[in-house]
Amino acid sequence: MEKELELPILPTTVIGSYPRPKWLREAIRLHKNGKISDEELKEAFDDAVIAVLRDHQVAGVDIPTDGEMRRDEMVEYFAERLKGFKFYGPVRVWGTAYYRKPSVVSKIEYTTPLIVDEFKFTKNASYSPHIKITITGPYTIAEWSYNEYYKTKQDLVFDLAKIINIELKKLVEAGATFIQVDEPALPTHAEEVEWAVDAINEAVKGINVKVGVHICYGDYSRVLPYTDKLLVDQFALEFANRNFEDLVLLKRFNFDKELGFGVVDVHNRRVESPEEVASAIRKALEYVPPDKLFINPDCGLKLLPRNIAFQKLVNMVAGTKIVREELKRKGYISTSLKPLVSR
Ligand SMILES: [Zn+2]
To answer: What is the spatial distance between Cα 85 and Cα 145, in angstroms, rounded to a whole number?
Structure first.
């Protein structure tokens, strides 16, 4: 087991999403209009996952994902599969961007596995023994929904946490070795972070594989004080988009967990050079020991054109390899996917 979980020092990974191939977007549209069957759409999703894995493989990413090809959106996907949610219609979130915001209209119930099948498919199709599976966290699902049923938001979040825990146990049974809970909404309300952390702990209870949390919006100084209290092994955070200025927060809050270091900006089409990536990693190494540093983009790549997303991964891996060689000369060869925190 130990050997199976071994990774090169500075393992490279992704946060989750990847641009959908144009033909997949076309297949989804045809399916919506009744022109192709459920079966044909499923085949298109499967083929897209294989294409994404191939991009990750060619780029040299150590721990790929399926690019979240099957998910239109990170809350909607789960809300559609849980009992208790209802969709009234899209709401405008930004300029002309619309979001199908779900409403909670009855007690949330788990009736069917959510992402176990997509995990199994990816695991079988993957070139790497290690893949990352992502799931939206209880706080973000609640924060990005309307609550029309529960007395308090807290009640809703804890019910969601229990359901996510059921799903995570099934993923571990199916062979998951690295789970990432996505909680971009976590820093939204400073006064709620403390109990939201308890809820995430409830969601990951008994999950004894590597668990990370990904947070990509908001003020990290609201979350980092809970580093120890939050029972995850790794924090995957964005730094590139913030000019790496938030690295100092790690020191200020005595951060001592693994860091998923966001080293390429997903909101900018300019492709970072390998040397730029390498110098950012050297900067991160001033705050995090080499065996606790994973390398990833700031966030999911899905809003970039596919060729740019791919080139960013190629250069991220190339930049990582420069620093990996420097570390090898100092005796740092490998790290591990073993969990560090007991849950
Ligand atoms: Zn993100």
So the answer is: 9
- Picking from 272, 291, 289, 279, the residue whose alpha carbon sits closest to that of residue 338 is 291
Domain residues for the domain of 53 are 3-73+110-139+151-336
**What gap in Å lies between CA 7 and CA 27, rounded to an integer?**
37
| 238 phi/psi in degrees, rounded to 5 | -90, 135
Residue 96 lies in a domain: no
User: Parallel, antiparallel, or unpaired for β 133-136 and 178-182?
Assistant: parallel
- Residue 330 in any domain: the answer is yes
Summarised one tens digit per residue, pLDDT across range 152-204 is 999 999 999 999 999 999 999 999 999 999 999 999 999 999 999 999 999 99
Q: How far apart are the first and last CA of the chain?
A: 19
Confidence at residue 96, expressed as pLDDT on a 0 to 100 scale = 73
* Alpha carbon of 300 to ligand 1 centroid (Å): 6
Largest CA distance in the chain: 60
In a domain, 79, yes or no: no
We report the CATH number of the domain holding residue 58 as: 3.20.20.210
Confidence band, pLDDT 50/70/90 cuts, at residue 92: confident
- Compute, in angstroms, the gap from residue 1 CA to the centroid of ligand 1: 31
94 found inside a domain: no
Q: What's the CA-to-centroid distance between 182 and ligand 1, angstroms?
A: 7
Backbone angles phi, psi at 251, to 5 degrees: -70, -45
Q: Which residues pair with 109 in a beta bridge?
A: 83
pLDDT at 237: 98
DSSP state of 187: T
The domain tally of the chain equals 1
* Alpha helices (H) along 145-226: 153-173, 193-203
CA of 328 to the centre of ligand 1 (A): 31
